Amino acid sequence: MDPVTADVLISRPQAEVFAYLADVANHPEFMGHFTRDWHVTREDTYGLGAGVRFAFKQRRNKFAWIDQTIVELEPPRRIVLTGGTGKFNRIQTTTVWALEPETGGTTRVAVSFEKVPKLATDRFGEGRGFHKAKWTKTLQVLRDVLEGKQENGSRATIAGGARKPATGFRFGAPARAGTK
Hey, which of 9, 22, 126, 171 has its CA 20 to 30 A from 98? Predict the structure, then answer.
């Protein structure tokens, strides 16, 4: 699938928008209209290596899950996430967030989303029209959230539940029957 691109002008400073986008736990707040079941893949949700797993709300998509991880970070201009989707995660995905300062303290935010199928059968149901419409709306929701026109949605959670504080589980010898 050729890259799907969209852009929007946000009335916030570039550094603020970058800091918000560099924290992957924030992404469900503005992408919730076409995604579901967000989970972060590590405790630190900000910066290089931070990753997420979620599913697209797309009809007739048997393999809707997608994993993405931040692999490039150029503050305050660019964020690149790569990952996989589809059967066995064999379809490579790339999401690029590009931020450029504009006059009056505003920021132009552009997003590019691309899927690279490995097999010819992976091309069925790519959903270019689906992605074009949804990424365009995503930027409109992002603008509304950052400008305070829309209430923030839910943030992503750590897969498997909370890690801190510890649950109290202790490694040790298994208890024997009849002993305390």
Answer: 126
For residue range 26-48, what is the model confidence (pLDDT) as tens digits? 999 999 888 888 899 888 899 99
Closest by Cα among 106, 98, 110 to 13? 106
Q: Is 26 exposed, middle or buried (0-12, 13-18, 19+ CB in 10 A)?
A: buried
Cα separation, 140 vs 8, whole angstroms: 7
DSSP H/E element including 15: helix 14-21
pLDDT 10s digits, 58-92: 766 667 788 999 999 999 999 999 999 887 778 89
Which contiguous run of DSSP H or E holds residue 3?
none
Given a contact cutoff of 8 angstroms between Cβ atoms, the answer to whether 56 and 34 are in contact is yes
4-10 vs 91-101, strand pairing mode: unpaired
> CA 52, CA 38: separation in Å to the nearest integer?
7
Domain at 4-158, CATH class: alpha beta
